[in-house]
Amino acid sequence: MTTNRSFPAQGRPWSEVQSAMAEARKGDLPWRAPRIFKPAYFAGEDLVQVANAAYDMYISDNALYGNTSYPSLGRYEEDVVAMMLEILDAPEGAGGSISSGGTESNMMAVKTARDWAREAKPGATAPEIVVPRTAHPSLEKGAQMFGVKVVRMAGSVDWRADIAGMAAAITPNTIMLVGSAPPYPYGTTDDISALSQLAERHKLWLHVDSCLGGLILPFARRLGKEVPDFDFALPGVTSISVDIHKFGYANKGVSVLLLRDKTLERFQRTTFDAWPSGLYSTPNITGSRSGGAIASAWAVMNYLGKEGYQERVRIILGIRDRIIAGICKVPGLYVIGKPDAYNFAFASKEFDMNAVADAMEDRGWVMGRAGEPASIQLMANRAHDESAEDFVADLALAVADVRAGRAVSRGVKAVYAT
Ligand SMILES: Cc1ncc(COP(=O)(O)O)c(C=O)c1O
């Protein structure tokens, strides 16, 4: 790769810049491919085209001015929120807003709960949130930035939130509980129903991180799959985050934070007008942001409709189930918990999974790794329709190599993002 660390004194033609970029990109992974099992939210070429075309239409429009200069973007925001509230069984009077991604939605949930608690729980002088072992690090980020302490469970119970541990961790300073539907590490949805009861009993905010599952689980349920309760139908659920740029199949930069009661939004917003340019009031961390992602969300949701989402969920869950069935046939491997969405992990009590992961990488597969226990993490997508059986066949060979001592671990550690 040609690097160019100094700011060039003179510019050069776009054709040259473009070929430098094409060259630089040669070392990157494609964002989706049959042998890549790291997160890629691919459900069909047609969806990529629709999302990209809509993104392109709004690429330069600033969503910060969605209520003033670009009313169509403001309308898309409202429509996307309304569609999500509908499929997540929100009651009359619910609301929500769009953010740039799951991290921002979760961070804003922490901020909103903190400001709500100043009014609703004045005894919580040093606010704390209680989260399962598997809760996403974005909650830590929000808590650090908003001056809230995180009490994270030491482990899971049956691969789900340790409900008894969370109940025992509640103190007068607790303002919020979190559950995930499903969490990233194992894909096994927490017992949100139990958390809802706990939240109601202690008058706490319950945030459900459904960034991964919010556009899968409702459709899996319609397909007759067994799906745990996780949405606003549970009376203790106060807020839900869902990423439209994941299994909504929009381009990166769009998620929703939904609130059971839209009047809670006053705790979310930053509102300020004591400066020369007038009122500034936004529900996000970000200011300017591209309208492209919001436009792509609206476009894909209208292109697919509920029926279209249901059909993509049917196809991808089918691919996931073929992979899981194959893994279960390899002696010594087990799938962790009961995956509810497309992401899951598998492990072994008999041999070193890091050695298996290395042996698979040697065969050209790209996968996630996790600890607790050492495991391989997969996220199924449409591209795996053509590779599911090859993956399982190579897995059986990799396991045989590890069992026979022909493959050993290179000592690679799990890394989520750096
Ligand atoms: C459960 C969960 N929550 C939050 C996030 C953060 O989302 P983002 O990467 O869009 O900020 C992720 C990302 O994978 C996730 O899996």
Q: How much helix, percentage-wise, in residues?
A: 25-40%
Going by helix content, strand content and strand pairing, the class is alpha/beta
Give me the side-by-side strand order of the main sheet.
Answer: 1-7-6-5-4-2-3
CATH fold naming of the domain at 57-301? Aspartate Aminotransferase, domain 2
Count every beta strand, where a strand is a DSSP E run of 2 or more residues. Answer: 13
List the ligand species: pyridoxal-5'-phosphate
Q: What portion of the residues fall into strands of 2 or more residues?
A: 5-15%
What string gives the helices and strands in order?
Answer: HHHEHEHEHEHEHEEHEEHEEHEEH
Main pleated-sheet profile = 7 strands, mixed
Morphology call: globular
- How many helices in DSSP terms? 12
**pLDDT below 50 for ≥5 consecutive residues: which ranges?**
none
Give the averaged pLDDT, no decimals: 97
Task: Give me the CATH architecture of the domain at 57-301, please.
Answer: 3-Layer(aba) Sandwich
Computed over alpha carbons, the radius of gyration is 22 Å
Cα distance spanning the termini = 21 Å
Structure description:
Helix 8 links the parallel strand 5 (205-209) and strand 6 (239-243). The protein starts with 13 loop residues before the first helix and ends in a 15-residue tail after the last helix. The chain has a 7-stranded mixed β-sheet, sandwiched between helices. A 4-stranded antiparallel β-sheet has the order 10-11-13-12, with helices on one face. It has 418 residues and is α/β, with parallel strands linked by helices. Helix content is 38%, strand content 14%. The mean pLDDT is 97. The protein has 12 helices and 13 strands. Bound molecules: pyridoxal-5'-phosphate. Pyridoxal-5'-phosphate (PLP) binds next to helix 4. The site of pyridoxal-5'-phosphate has 13 residues, from helix 4.
